[in-house]
């Protein structure tokens, strides 16, 4: 599948020689210097769309080791591909050519947790689910959640400014991250690991790294604010007949529950069919409807439990919704979530998936899906689905096929991005630009913005050794 990127030229970086290999081996020890067959898994992304040809993975255990690695790479002009859990969906986490892979997997220590402030400080390689379990035991939650929680790492989450399933209640990571430590391209350690909630002393440099997709530095430590765990969590799975009804239901739920609304996720019938057929999960309600909503409410009082029943009954009576199941037992809540969280994996089981992650006004949220279906009618496509974080206006348009085809790509792109721009949306709501979307950056960023971004890149990484070929179109940056 690399053929999509054959027009890229390898930058004039050094090829690792025996001295370099000796240096890294000595610095990290044999166990944390990976070569041979094992490197394969680090070269390929989750979507199996991009596959690099790196020969080496470096797994530093400390910030000091990251600093030594980058100092050396900077001096010797060695390109570096930064990797966390490798669950990214835009080809940003794997090398394009032979960049050496710096994996944060061995930096997985929790440093501190303050019960008074709710601030967690940890290393970048901590797996999100481990952090969730850790803070849950203390009566707190992480301020975000994603289907990839079992594998993705907090450093990768910050680097992509991951959105996810709870953003509607807790906001974006830009608000929750209080501080971070990062190693710059030349090896200098930038310590912005503040745990303060308020600190207006000039520019907030931490924001440069949140969403920078590994192009400005390696995030090594994170300080993040964790909200109290809600005492009551209630999840409902709801069936609806049309998209208009979905919007009426959203409006009703917003009005009734406001701040207790922790998720409002939309799934179309194609997504539900895929998860039933390809994963073997069962839809808990009538599986012949056009749309499904996963609604989660969370609060510190039990009022939500009785009032959600009443509101759902009212919505049924008014024919806004046609079927629903609701529960507050952790196992029930978890089973409802399983369906939603398994949708991406279910589409991948068809063979190949084209993913579009766009922000749109609520009214236009679903319009593009039937439009794309029509455009692909005569091509060999297994499924065209729209699902996602409707509460935040974030649509995931997935087109599943048996294998990659240029014909299908050109039937969707740039059409989908032109359409998004016309609606004043964003061409990447939460997954980033990575390698797969560099060509389309211009649809969401003006020339002035791209120019300033390039100047920042040059300031942070003048030799452009960090995650080359990512975010910027190659002609723009070299
Ligand atoms: P990687 O994939 O390893 O890397 C992602 C990017 O960050 C790369 O550019 C990489 O170079 C850079 N990077 C990684 N670590 C560092 C670091 N320490 N310092 C600097 N740069 C670094 N995303 C969402 O936003 N919302 C979702 O709901 C969501 N759900 C998902 C569900 C599934 C099943 C899957 C497979 C993915 C999902 N994603 C989602 C995408 C992905 O999980 C997120 O982007 C996640 O934040 C990536 O974390 P990671 O550790 O796997 O990073
Ligand atoms: C989700 O919300 C993720 O499940 C993945 O962001 C979306 O795979 C996708 O298109
Ligand atoms: Zn998502």
UniProtKB/TrEMBL annotation:
This is D-2-hydroxyglutarate dehydrogenase, mitochondrial. InterPro entries: FAD-bd_oxidored_4_C, FAD-bd_PCMH, FAD-bd_PCMH-like_sf, FAD-bd_PCMH_sub1, FAD-bd_PCMH_sub2, FAD-linked_Oxase-like_C, FAD-oxidored/transferase_4, Oxid_FAD_bind_N. Keywords: FAD, Flavoprotein, Oxidoreductase, Peroxisome. The keyword Hydrolase does not apply. Homodimer. Signal peptide: none annotated. It is found in: Peroxisome. Catalyzes the oxidation of D-2-hydroxyglutarate (D-2-HG) to alpha-ketoglutarate. Also catalyzes the oxidation of other D-2-hydroxyacids, such as D-malate (D-MAL) and D-lactate (D-LAC). Exhibits high activities towards D-2-HG and D-MAL but a very weak activity towards D-LAC.
